[in-house]
């Protein structure tokens, strides 16, 4: 089993990349399971609406911080338990935000972890979010670093898939 941890700041394309990567891996008749740590939180909010996720983000950040304060591994332990139970060929966790999350998965699944970090080279967002979930991995050295521009291009003021994105997927696959 290979476990791919995708990390990066908000709005860098982590979910988009994980979906595309899963589809690419499945072409080789491999079983791929994708997880998001935030889904553990989202599932606990009865009226959560993915279309309004920007409105729910402060609540999710606060809930996550409260849970991690009591037990820093509670959310990721649930995912690790599911992985152990299901045993897919590949696992993609698309929203790793903290060093302890990487360490936990490396301890639970030695020699199975591949860390992929996306950096935002396209937007001048001036992300002033100093929450630990946005800055904890700033200095972290991943197994592979890719740029948002390797995933997206801007056309008519909208992000669309970069025509060279398939090469980025191949580059990622060549690393594990």
UniProtKB/TrEMBL annotation:
The catalytic activity of this protein is classed by the Enzyme Commission as: 2.7.4.2
Gene Ontology cellular-component terms listed: cytosol
Q: In which pathway does it act?
A: Isoprenoid biosynthesis; isopentenyl diphosphate biosynthesis via mevalonate pathway; isopentenyl diphosphate from (R)-mevalonate: step 2/3
What the entry lists under PANTHER family is as follows: PHOSPHOMEVALONATE KINASE (PTHR13101:SF1)
A Gene Ontology biological process noted in the UniProt record is: isopentenyl diphosphate biosynthetic process, mevalonate pathway
Keyword Cytoplasm assigned: yes
Any one GO MF term held by the record is:
ATP binding
Q: Which keywords does the record carry? A: ATP-binding, Cholesterol biosynthesis, Cholesterol metabolism, Cytoplasm, Kinase, Lipid biosynthesis, Lipid metabolism, Nucleotide-binding, Steroid biosynthesis, Steroid metabolism, Sterol biosynthesis, Sterol metabolism, Transferase
Q: Where in the cell is it found?
A: Cytoplasm, Cytosol
Q: How far does the signal peptide extend, from start to end residue?
A: none
- The protein depicted here goes by the name Phosphomevalonate kinase
Name the enzyme's class: transferase
Q: Which organism is it from?
A: [Mycoplasma] anseris
